[in-house]
Write a structure and sequence with these properties.
The protein is mainly alpha-helical and about 240 residues long. The chain has two domains: about 90 residues, no CATH class; about 120 residues, no CATH class. The chain is built from 13 helices and no strands. It is globular and about 65 Å long.
C-alpha cells in the first residue's frame, strides 16, 4: 500500500507542477509539487523497509530526487541502492538520464556519459543499448533532428538499439524504444524498417519523441504517414 500511495503521489506531483518550463510555472505550483514529493519520499522509505529486496521504491525515488534537487552524491547513493537490486532496470536508467541531463540536475556530458556507461556490456534484451539514443535525444532538444539523425554517430546508436530490441520480445519498455527508433529510422531514410516499428506501436503515443509536442498525436500521425508513403514509393521503384 505504501508503494502504491507513493507512486500515485509522484504522478500527482508532476501534474501539480504542470508541463511548463520553470520560468513559466507559478510559485504556488512549485510549493504543491515539492510538498507532494516530500510525502511520496516518506511512503517510499516505508515501502523500502517493508520489502528490502524490491528495487521499485528506489527506482521511483529517482523522480523525487529530480524534483527536489538531490545533490549528486545523494543521487549516486540512491543509484547504488537501485543497481544492487536491479542492475539492468530500464525504467530506472531512463529516469536517471533525466536527472543527469542539463535541463534538470546535470549536464549534456553527464547524461551522455551515464547512458554510454550503462549500455556498455549490458546483456542483450535489456534494452540498455538504446540508452545512448535516448540521451542523445534529451540533450539535443531544440536542434535540427532531421539533420543529426542522419549522422554516422546516431545511425550507430540506432543500429545498436535494433540489435538489442531483437532479443527483447515481451520487454515492457520495448514500445517506448520502438517509437524513438522508428522516428530516427524515418529521418535516416530507412522507411521500410521504420514502418514495421510504427505498426507495432500504433495507437499509443505517450513516448519520445511525441510526448514533448503539444499536439503529440498529430505529430505522430504526420511522421507515420510520411514513412508509409515513402515505404510505398520505395517498393514501387523496385518493382
Amino acid at each position: 500500500m505504501a508503494l502504491v500511495r507513493a507512486q500515485a503521489r509522484v504522478h500527482h506531483a508532476w501534474r501539480l507542477r504542470g508541463p511548463y518550463f520553470a520560468s513559466a510555472t507559478a510559485e504556488y505550483r512549485f510549493r504543491l509539487f515539492h510538498r507532494a514529493l516530500f510525502k511520496a519520499r516518506e511512503d517510499l522509505a516505508t515501502a523500502a523497509r517493508l520489502n528490502p529486496d524490491d528495487p521499485t521504491p528506489h527506482t521511483v525515488e529517482i523522480w523525487p530526487a529530480l524534483g527536489l534537487g538531490y545533490p549528486h552524491d545523494m543521487m549516486r547513493d540512491l543509484w547504488d541502492e537501485v543497481t544492487r537490486r536491479a542492475p539492468h532496470h530500464f525504467d530506472a536508467h531512463y529516469s536517471a538520464i533525466q536527472y543527469w541531463s542539463q535541463k534538470w540536475r546535470g549536464s549534456h556530458k553527464l547524461a551522455r556519459e551515464f547512458a554510454e556507461k550503462a549500455a556498455a556490456g549490458a546483456p542483450p534484451g535489456t534494452l540498455l543499448a538504446a540508452l545512448p539514443l535516448f540521451a542523445w535525444y534529451e540533450t539535443t532538444l531544440g536542434d535540427d533532428y532531421s539533420y543529426s539523425c542522419a549522422s554516422p554517430r546516431v545511425r550507430a546508436m540506432v543500429d545498436a538499439a535494433l540489435e538489442d530490441m531483437a532479443h527483447a520480445e515481451g520487454h515492457p519498455a520495448l514500445p517506448r524504444v520502438q517509437h524513438l527508433v522508428a522516428y530516427c529510422l524515418h529521418e535516416q531514410g530507412r522507411h521500410q524498417e521504420a514502418l514495421r516499428h510504427f505498426r507495432a506501436v500504433d495507437g499509443w503515443v505517450d513516448a519520445l519523441p511525441w510526448r514533448y509536442r503539444q499536439k503529440s498525436r498529430l505529430h505522430y500521425r504526420g511522421i507515420r504517414t510520411a514513412a508509409a508513403r515513402a515505404a510505398v514509393a520505395e517498393r514501387l521503384r523496385r518493382s
